[in-house]
Amino acid sequence: MHLNNNDYITIGNKKNSLLNIIWFHGYGSNNWSFETTLKIVNMRLNDNGYIVIPNAPCIEGKNSWYPLPTRNLEGELVEDHNGLIKSVEDVDSFIESLSLDN
Question: Can you give the pTM of this predicted structure?
């Protein structure tokens, strides 16, 4: 899985923010589902927030931050541990790319 670092929405002014929020949507949803709500949240914060809403990669036709478990021939759940580790690395890399320390 590869997180597309160019597919995200920002709300607020990064340079003047007092608070940074990174909002990760749920499985099958997308970043636009929360854009209006998070604009209202920032308004309630007196526009002091900087909010980033990334879009999850598309996996098998659904947006997902990590690979979902599958079932083997015996019907047991099987986790893609390597895929989970890669997902964490991708999210960490995305967060670092935002340079929120400045």
Answer: 0.84
